[in-house]
Amino acid sequence: MTIEKMLHAVESLSTWIGKAFAWLIVALMLVVCAEVAKRYIFNMPTAWIYDVNNMMYGTLFMMCGAYALAHDAHVRGDFLYGSMPPRRQAALDLVLYIVFFMPGILALTWAGWVYFGDSLAIHETTFNATPLPIYPFKFFIPFAGATVLLQGISEIVRCIVCLKTGRWTERLDDAEEIDVVEQQLSSSTYVDDASRREAIAKTKSIDEAARQRLGQE
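== TRAP transporter small permease protein ==
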């Protein structure tokens, strides 16, 4: 297996996990809507709904971290970074991953596992009229840490490859802003065909120019 295939395999795993847990946002929406109806229409509020919302949102937030890292979706102040050549970007990323990322994620994974173990040992529950088990939710803390750690190691390898070759390894394709813009313009009834084609072409040219700038030495 080549290094590029290995990097893509890790990205595929992170992407699959992120997309699988992203469905929690649908479940969260349904739970919230059901609770609003019960509370304000039927006057039958649920005591445990707040805890369920917190656990579902927390799980969604944590388990999508590796997906965001795999697709370079985390926010960065790139007013300087974006103008650097790939090797300088890779060197900076490598230092930051080793100095800050790895110690933090290792600490999160280890502490999360201990945290989960303590919760499981006492079968920890919530404090309300209808107690809910908390330890299944706390299991996702070390699990999320492990997935982000795996993707982080992949990113470190990507930096090393870039330092050697002078270019970034291509990431797996996924839905991006350019795809959303094109889809919205294509289905819009308020824009004529000529303007629609022109806007899509300009958007693609801007995206391509940005990719070329990041791929230059």
